[in-house]
Specification:
47% of the residues lie in helices and 16% in strands. It contains 21 helices and 14 strands. It has helices at residues 2-19, 24-32, 36-43, 58-74, 87-93, 109-119, 133-141, 165-171, 182-190, 203-212, 218-224, 237-243, 246-249, 264-273, 281-290, 311-314, 335-338, 354-361, 371-382, 385-398, 401-409; strands at residues 50-55, 79-84, 100-103, 121-127, 146-151, 176-179, 196-198, 229-235, 254-259, 278-280, 302-304, 320-323, 344-346, 365-367. The strands form two sheets. Strands 3-2-1-4-5-6-7 form a seven-stranded parallel beta sheet, with helices on both faces. Strands 10-11-9-8-12-13-14 form a seven-stranded parallel beta sheet, sandwiched between helices. Helix 8 (165-171) links the parallel strand 5 and strand 6. Helix 4 (58-74) crosses helix 5 (87-93), helix 4 packs across helix 10 and helix 4 (58-74) packs across helix 21. It starts with a helix and ends with a helix.
Length: 411
Amino acid sequence: MKLLYIIGIWAYTLLIRIFSLFNPKAKLFIIGRKNIFTIIARKINPTEKHIWFHFASLGEFEQGRPVLEKIKTLYPAKKIIVTFFSPSGYEVRKNYALADVFYLPIDTAANAKRFIAGINPEMAIFTKYEFWHFYFKELKDQGIPLYVISGIFRENQLFFKRYGGFYRNILKSVTYFFVQNKESENLLKSIGLDNVTISGDTRFDRVYENAQSPKQLSLIESFIGKSPTLVCGSTWPEDEKILSALPEKYPNWKFIIAPHEIHESHIESIEKQFSVNSVRFSVLSAQLAGESSQISNLKSQILIIDNIGMLSSLYQYGKVAYIGGGFGTGIHNTLEAAAFGLPVIFGPKYDKFQEAKDLIAIGAAKSISSTTDLINALEGFVENQDAADQAKRYVANKKGATDLIISMITK
């Protein structure tokens, strides 16, 4: 199985190199790792101890961020290293002020040994998932504590299959698991791993904190005026097709669309779907900077966000939120919207997300499969203040995972 793992890593890297010839994201994946060890050696003193946080992408960064920032607050002299697997995380947070940020080199025995020697971690903290054999083994061999925070496990994962011995051994390198729910705790204990605590999900801490002091966006305020607004976060083409029926039916509403992918062809497809009544954020921003605030594009009904990093602040301006991904592999983050007291609407594929099930159960979310469903859900939430209150209360009641984790890893 180990040989298959190595072959899989090699094959994945080869495919990314091929895709990098025509895919911008894949190109960043390759370019970002070029001369990575030279870059690390130039920036990091290997004789000093560091705390290493690894995140798969941007969502996991925001999830683990409360723990990172709490450690930095309690121990300001601690030096922190952040690594990302995906360009989606690295490109947005590469200038993060509290840490030195790098791409994670591909998981090979040589890379793991060289990387860990180069950053000299006193502990490593991985958020939610990504279990790399050689990195985990090297940490264990060197006696460096490794924590998984906001972990979540499911019965269909390889760790819990009869033939999953190799992957179970990867988990045995983890010093302690902080998991989101009882199911995850039970699954780990079923394979002999008792070093586990149900801490909850640190995302609740992050979204709650964000909602208490959100970044004010004057351009968004000017765009929406006093109009009720539907904020559509992390949308995909399947979501946008259904959403495109709404502006004509609700001419007094404003619609903010923040797509999951912002490459040019996707932005252009959204513009075609929503006709001439839309404007890109970059265009509106440039016009306001160069002219007066009284420009015609402020009267557009649809604002397309063609950058990454604004979404968590956009929800403060909404009345209802639509969360994308539910017609694909699964919905994106519903909690950022719920923290602001927005009822949420999403597609049918939400079964892997406990918070989505919880929000539906308390009347603060609805799953839809068609335009008709979407219209019914939106109209049901428009005057339903109880749904807004339930969403906000749900997030507030779930926070606290960060303090529990910190109390255990720093004692």
